[in-house]
Amino acid sequence: MKKPWQIWTLFCVCLLAIVIAMSWLSLKTIRLDGLRESDRAETEMARREAELQERISSALYRMDLKMLPLVIHEAARPPYFYRFPSEIHSPSANLVLLRFQIDAQNNISSPDSMRQQTLSQIQLADQAFDYQTLLRQSTEMDHAEPNNSLATSAPPLNYDNKIDAQLSRGTKRVNEDYSQRRLSTLELTQQSLLNNSLSYGLQMTENNTPLPTKSNALQAVPMQPTWMNGKLIFVRRVDDENGMVFQCCWLNWQEIEHELQNEVAELLPNVQFEAITPNTQLKIGTALTTIPVQLVIDRPAMLARLAMDLPATARSSAFSISLLAAWCCLGLAALASALLLRGVLRLSERRAAFVSAVTHELRTPLTTFRMYSEMLADGMVPPEKSKQYANTLKVQADRLSHLVENVLLFAKLERSSARIHSETVTVEGLISRFSCRLMERADDSQMRLVIEVPPSVAIVPLSTQPAVIEQILFNLVDNACKYAQSSADNRIILSVGPAANRIQFRVQDFGPGITSVDRKRLYEPFHQSRTAKANAVAGVGLGLALCDRMAKSIAGRLFDKDCSTGAVFILELPSG
């Protein structure tokens, strides 16, 4: 049989190997889960980006559609319209502050002269606009190269390949959409301008208004939206017989901004606008085609609003719980295995100790029997010593009988199969049954048994099992004879007394007593104290363990008590 430390070493090595393997699997699983979560996060972010771009495209389409009637009515008005006062019927009258024409001397005239607020608006326009600034901006617009591509204005996002690919596809789609919307707006404006020119010419003919001759006819060019001094206007340059003039339509930007925000409130809450000027940095897919403005969007906030990844936390929590449960199961399995191994080793040690102790205890009586029987058979014993040899054989027989009885009774108690008849007997009657046996055991060890039973206690009835009590007290007296045999005081005191509706049987000797180390394992089977091992005291270490189990079998308890000299054991039983 291997030694316990070897078995424990092998167990620890196996457990360490399992822990290392489990750790490796856990790290791999965590790493794979991290990659999966990273891929899921990339996919989710790409989905949000795509959805946000779809919302922006839808919002731009709505806003351009909202502004298109204004562009068609205002930017496509023929040049003749600005030469004569007229009553203007427009579906978006609240979006226009003033229509006016300005010449090189900064003289402003307006076809809106029939409106009451025109004079005040003309005064404001005279302060806000001047001919030279319009000329400079018009020249810059003429020399500016058309560029409908917004790919260079992508926001500085640093995601992985999946999102980069999504952004690349989105940029291409946005550029195509922007170009298509821009071209459609220009075509509609040009067509509307031609229709308006024809309609306006017919109206002038009906009103007997002289039409311009071919020599002084004005070129029909659509008005272009632009910003000047923070004011949004439609403007075009017109050459007539009096020189070059600028025809402008001053728009009410505050009202336009409010209507556009309301139009896309469910798509882009809290959207803001930024004027597009030559110094403005364009942003991908955010510019309108009808007016020079682009959207200002809080992308992080919008991406957060579009999050639909609520189960991710649950998945992460479930994974953590599963991993923790696996480690807990491993810990419980290791603990259970350790406890089982400890129990098996202790059982093996107890079995080995039992075999060793019983073998040792059996060897002495058997050797004595064999030697004395051979001597008696061979006539080697003188007649006068025959009685002495017979007494020795009797003592060894009693010793062997007591050993076998203890072992068998302990085995029965371990299997819970010991069934002894209960009866009611007084304390005095109980003591009288086995007092002779106890005194005989004490006399064999040259000890003196003193029995103290007060008269008031002697008549107390007990409903118990006398045979069990006899065996317990005999074992206690037997231990006292073994351990206190060499003490100066050879008394063993067996006293009986009351204790709170219970009866206590107290066995006291005046030997070396019980050390604090031995007291911890005092009632363990097959355990012998250091004193017993040092003095080679006979026994297998079953006495106190057997007494403790027998006491519990009759609803009592056995315990020891500190004493200045010797050892004191108390058997406590219920009275009545």
UniProtKB/TrEMBL annotation:
Database matches in PANTHER family: HYBRID SIGNAL TRANSDUCTION HISTIDINE KINASE C (PTHR43547:SF2), TWO-COMPONENT HISTIDINE KINASE (PTHR43547)
Q: What is the uppermost EC class here? A: transferase
State the UniProt keywords alphabetically: Membrane, Phosphoprotein, Transferase, Transmembrane, Transmembrane helix
Q: Which residues cross the membrane?
A: 7-27, 318-341
Ranges where the Histidine kinase domain occurs: 357-576
* UniProt KW Ligase keyword: no
Write down the SUPFAM superfamilies for this protein, in alphabetical order.
ATPase domain of HSP90 chaperone/DNA topoisomerase II/histidine kinase (SSF55874), Homodimeric domain of signal transducing histidine kinase (SSF47384)
Q: Which PROSITE patterns match?
A: HIS_KIN
Q: What is its EC number?
A: 2.7.13.3
Give the GO molecular function terms. phosphorelay sensor kinase activity
Question: Which catalysed reactions does the entry list for this protein?
Answer: ATP + protein L-histidine = ADP + protein N-phospho-L-histidine
Identify this protein by name. histidine kinase
Q: Which InterPro entries match?
A: HATPase_C_sf, HATPase_dom, His_kinase_dom, HisK_dim/P_dom, HisK_dim/P_sf, Sig_transdc_His_kin-like_C
